Fold this sequence. Notes:
The chain is mainly alpha-helical. The protein has 8 helices and 2 strands; from the N terminus they run αααααββααα. The chain has helices spanning 3-7, 14-22, 27-35, 41-45, 53-66, 87-90, 93-106, 115-118, and strands spanning 69-75, 80-85. β1 and β2 (80-85) form a beta hairpin.
Amino acid sequence: MNSASKRGPRSGCPIATTLDIVGDRWTLVILRDMLTGKRRFAEFLASPERITTNVLTDRLAGMEAAGLVAKAPYQERPVRFEYTLTPMGRGLLPVLQDMCRWANRFRPETWVPPASFMEPPTD
């Protein structure tokens, strides 16, 4: 999430607007993790990309502010939260699937996602 997304879109261009929301290094990786079932902070930290806690905190807050995720407590003491994708966040699945197809085609060293990730969206 960059500062432009907090102020509003830079232009009416749909690509620029989308990049304002998801165009940083980590947001799409977090979305990938959520689309594969991760919901909790520690689960995101365990991903192979090794995001730092401060960056993860910042990205999750930005994703919530942008309407991509919803946050709900699952434990009271200490308070801990889990995150779920909103319809807007789930709407990015085809984009991530196309990114996987592109990378698998042009960067053959990349891993092939699980078949369940590549299935068409159900909602």
